Amino acid sequence: MLLSVIEIIFIVVFLLICVAYFTIFERKAIGSIQRRFGPNVFGYFGILQAFADGLKLFLKEIILPSSSNKKLFLFAPVFSFFLSLFSWAAIPFSLGYVYADLDLGILFIFSISALSVYGVIIAGWSSNSKYAFLGALRSSAQILSYEVSIGFIIVSVILCSGSFNLSTIVQSQITIWYIFSMFPIFILFFISALAETSRHPFDLPEAEAELVSGYNVEYSAISFALFFLGESANMFLMSTLTSLLFLGGWSFFGFFNSFILAVKVFLFVILFVWVRAAFPRYRYDQLIRLCWKVFLPFSISWVVLVSSILLHFNWC
Predict the structure, then answer these.
(1) Per-residue model confidence as pLDDT tens digits over 95-111
(2) DSSP conformational letter for 97
(3) Is the peptide bond before 201 cis (omega within 30 degrees of 0)?
(4) What number of other Cβ atoms are within 10 A of residue 285's Cβ?
(5) Do the beta carbons of residue 80 and residue 119 sit within 8 Å?
(6) Cα 290 to Cα 194: distance, rounded to the nearest angstrom
(7) Are the CB atoms for 130 and 222 separated by under 8 Å?
(8) Which one of 51, 160, 244, 307 is most buried, counting C-beta atoms within 10 A?
(9) Are 135 and 214 in contact, with CB atoms under 8 Å apart?
(10) Using the 8-state DSSP alphabet, how is residue 61 labeled?
(11) Among 75, 81, 74, 96, which Cα is nearest to 16's?
């Protein structure tokens, strides 16, 4: 029991530290791309800026809108934050290094990600603000739409590996990574991950020019920080899933190490930051059209193609 608690604390603390330093890295990288300074005051080269921002948000007063549903208003960020942590229980960091090695691990993660919609809807509705409510509607529609495409993409990986267990999926890529045999579906998965985490260029729920700040417009102090931490943790989760499903996880040409997985995750984190700096924001109708008229038909067709090939060679 004590060992399990220590493992949970280690995973949570490690994830929060990664999120803190990701904010510094993102601000410095985007500042460099845009030919300006990022944070460079607090700490050497600004490396302590995230902790200063976190302390500031923790010490600020939590402002409750007078017309809001206060219990649900405070519950929404806590619910979203804890959901972003639950999925990490089924993530294998190396062979045997996983908190809960579930046979249906990929379904567990998929079901937890589906529940995150409720945190967004509760936040938007309980704020009693038109901007927050419109942002919640946008975000829930976007997340649910792209979850359908992600689901069919994951089905293709499950068909090739023959298992729902993430460790087994990684072991099935020792010979060849799925990114080589399923490169088109890998591109779809990465773009869908951007939309699923509401990252640029699909950050329509938080479009400042239209909705001020989206579903979290009424939040401040630590409640706002919990939403931010949850979104960043989900970005790390999608980067890790992409590495496990398509890049062989912790394996690299006969070498097996958690450090290899960390390098692959960091590469996808760099891609998340680069996409934010390089691409303009989509219109909302373009976002939804891209999902239902391009991604969904292609992902379903790919499932049919993969299952047909597997059935054919099994019969042969």
Answers:
(1) 778 887 788 888 888 88
(2) B
(3) yes
(4) 9
(5) yes
(6) 13
(7) no
(8) 244
(9) yes
(10) P
(11) 81
What residues form DSSP beta bridges with 252? Answer: 255
Q: How far apart are CA 316 and CA 313, in angstroms?
A: 5
Distance of CA 309 to the CA centre of its chain: 31
| Residue 120: CB atoms within 10 Å | 27
The answer to whether residues 50 and 86 touch, using CB atoms and an 8 Å cutoff, is: no
Q: What is the pLDDT of residues 8-39, one digit of tens each?
A: 788 888 888 888 888 888 888 888 888 887 77
Neighbour count for residue 76 (Cβ, 10 Å): 28
Token pair 């996983």 in the structure block, residue? 98
DSSP notation for 103-116:
TTHHHHHHHHHHHH
**This prediction's pTM:** 0.88
Helices (DSSP H) in the chain: which residue ranges?
A: 2-33, 49-59, 70-86, 105-126, 130-161, 166-171, 178-181, 183-196, 208-211, 221-246, 258-278, 284-290, 296-315
Residue 117 corresponds to which amino acid? Answer: V
- Which token pair is 228? 């931010």
Residues whose CB falls within 8 Å of the CB of residue 5, separated by 6 or more in sequence, listed in order: none
